[in-house]
What we know:
By secondary structure, the chain is α/β, with parallel strands linked by helices. The chain contains twelve helices and 21 strands. Strands 7-6-15-16-17-14-18-21 form an eight-stranded mixed β-sheet. A six-stranded mixed β-sheet has the order 9-3-2-13-20-19.
Amino acid sequence: MDEIAQGLDKSPGKAEFRVMTTPNSEKSRHGALTAEVLIVGGGLVGLTQGIALASAGIETLVVDRADPVRVRAASHDGRSSAIARGSSQVLATLDIWERMAAEAQPILDIRVSDGQVGRGAAPFFLHYAQEDLDARTAGPLGYIVENRITREALHARAAELPALTLLAPAGIAEMSRGPGAVEARLEDGRALRAQLAIAADGRLSAQRQAAGIKTTDWDYPQCGIVATIHHDQPHHSVAHEHFLPAGPFALLPMTDTPQGRPRSSLVWTERRELVPAMMALSEAAFSAELMRRFGGSLGHLREVGGRWSYPLSLMYAERIVAERLALIGDAAHVIHPIAGQGLNLGLRDVAALAETLVDARRLGLDLGGAEVLAGYPRWRRFDNLALMVVTDGLNRLFSNDIGPIRLVRDLGLAAVNQMPPLKRLFMHHAMGLAGDLPRLVRGEAL
């Protein structure tokens, strides 16, 4: 066997380079590293896709530009993600969830209100509680997990799969997709060959652009500020979302520190022009701004571990398949974080595409064939488009302080709160348990 690389290189000053040794590392008669599927991008969605396929025996290559050591560091990404119930079932079925469950904080209640606490707050609100669920879906509404914890779990699971080869850090220099195969060359000169390429390389996806797939996109006049917040009082597994004129302000429950200190994840949407000033505030001044917006129900709020800001945008690919190419995650769609559904949307892409490809392989079909790929957009198009429209509409509806509009939306919140069947339907959608669900989302093996 012609091994490319094996193990971990943790020498000082050197990025980790890891390739799991697999049967894929044998050179084919074409002189290339071969696999059935090549995934470009090894982030949360791309690596989950690789694990899903490899766990079903599909030989898979994942190429990622990022240094695996750097992306797993706490300083790389201060964000946490909301993991819907359906997404947790995907991760559990792929033997990933067990590695992160101890650091996943269940969400038992969600409280949505309109207006700044103590200054113009509306008397109406919307309260989702796990007690409102029926017996079939009883349990947490979802979970909050730090992205670094999820990355650790994904890399640990990936290392166990003999059908998965991870090339990182590595970049695609060029790729051609023809009637018979996908052929690619890495920047270091190595050649790759597969039946299908999957683009998981983010909003600015080079593979999507190379395929000539157009997008609908625009930038919101908002940025998201994220940080981990310590507070005096326990959060009791409650997620809070206040709709302010600049955008939603959310505190999402996290697991306590090892010392027992309660903490939450801050997701604060603010007008873009104000964000540099907010990011430059001292710790005391930043805490004062948090208290002014949220109030004192959790005691004093204090940022720990730094803060990050990200511009907010919307992007929707007009097609999610092309010749021997499929798009997943942010390469296919980027939505507003108002409902915390971005990662969940990508994981449903993973589940649908994995099921499509695994079923096709069992029938002996060409995984990159047009007839196989045709089922994937039919399955995903409505869910992707519907969630984009809903999140964009909610942001536009609530990110203003226009009196008549505010009255209508507050009455709407109150009405939904008093209609258990409608509220339960909305909860099922937020949990990722509505619609035509792939087997992984239902907690069933591929």
